[in-house]
From TrEMBL:
This is tRNA1(Val) (Adenine(37)-N6)-methyltransferase. It comes from the Bacteria. PANTHER family: TRNA1(VAL) (ADENINE(37)-N6)-METHYLTRANSFERASE. GO terms for molecular function: methyltransferase activity. It comes from Salipaludibacillus agaradhaerens. Residues 39-132 form the Methyltransferase small domain. InterPro entries: SAM-dependent_MTases_sf, Small_mtfrase_dom, tRNA_Adenine-N(6)_MTase.
């Protein structure tokens, strides 16, 4: 049986100020990536160095580029995703600001300079590989969703190596892994400073957590008001829509 050819498409990101190339056979950008790009602390300075790990098709750097003029490196291990990301940066005319790097985040020492970044962001694979999960037939989806090529510890360890003292790591993940996230962050000298939960609606538990940590920071954390995505009419709440779009 002949398989259908993957369909490439050009989609708008929320806010309609950036477009992103995606493909029908590859995991598309998610709300998680959009919220991470809006959550991370950025400045209007041009001299900050930013790096996004596990960038996929580039949603996080595409949106961060609207908030800062600083240069952004975007690391992706899968060649097909890296190529789509490069295509998106050129389409949006920000290829001089966002540099896409096809590489393994566990082996960046020959590609970038450790200890030179002010900010690291990451929307990583959420789920550990088990006997039952993580072996999807679609390799691209498996790598995006499960810790096939990098674990949570790999991500946090890489961020710690990349950051200079007092640099910031911003991460989006699943709430059920929060204790593990904080434990590993502290192991690698990253002190959690800001935390925000995202709930599907006011009656449901959080299904997403945003966390920001400072390298060699002092213990002290702020828990921000949660985001409630959907109201009783099953559309975005007024507050969330204004923030998201």
């Amino acid at each position: 049986m002949k398989q259908d050819m993957p369909i490439e498409r050009l989609d708008y990101l929320p806010g309609l100020k950036r477009q992103i190339y995606q493909r029908s056979d590859i995991f598309s950008y998610s709300m998680d990536a959009v919220l991470l790009a809006k959550f991370v602390t950025l400045s209007k300075r041009k001299d900050q160095r930013i790096i996004d790990l596990c960038t996929g098709t580039g949603a996080v750097p595409l949106l961060m580029s609207l908030r800062t003029p600083s240069s952004i490196d975007a690391v992706e291990i899968q060649p097909v995703l890296a190529k789509l990301s490069i295509k998106s940066m050129r389409h949006n005319n920000i290829h001089n600001q966002v540099n896409v790097i096809e590489a393994d985040i566990r082996q960046l020492q020959k590609t970038v300079t450790y200890g030179s970044y002010h900010i690291v962001t990451c929307n990583p694979p959420y789920f550990p590989v088990t006997a039952e999960k993580g072996k999807n037939m679609n390799e691209h989806l498996s790598i995006a969703r499960h810790e096939v090529l990098c674990t949570l510890e790999d991500v946090i360890k890489a961020a710690s190596k990349l950051l200079m003292a007092k640099g910031i790591m911003a991460l989006v993940h699943r709430p059920e892994r929060l204790v593990e996230i904080v434990t590993i962050m502290k192991q690698y000298q990253l002190e959690p400073k800001r935390l925000q939960y995202v709930h599907p609606n006011k009656n449901k538990e959080a299904n997403m957590v945003l966390i920001e940590a400072v390298k060699e920071g002092r213990p002290s954390i702020k828990v921000l008001p949660p985001w409630i995505v959907y109201g009783e009419d099953h559309t975005y709440t007024k507050e969330f829509k204004k923030h998201y779009e």
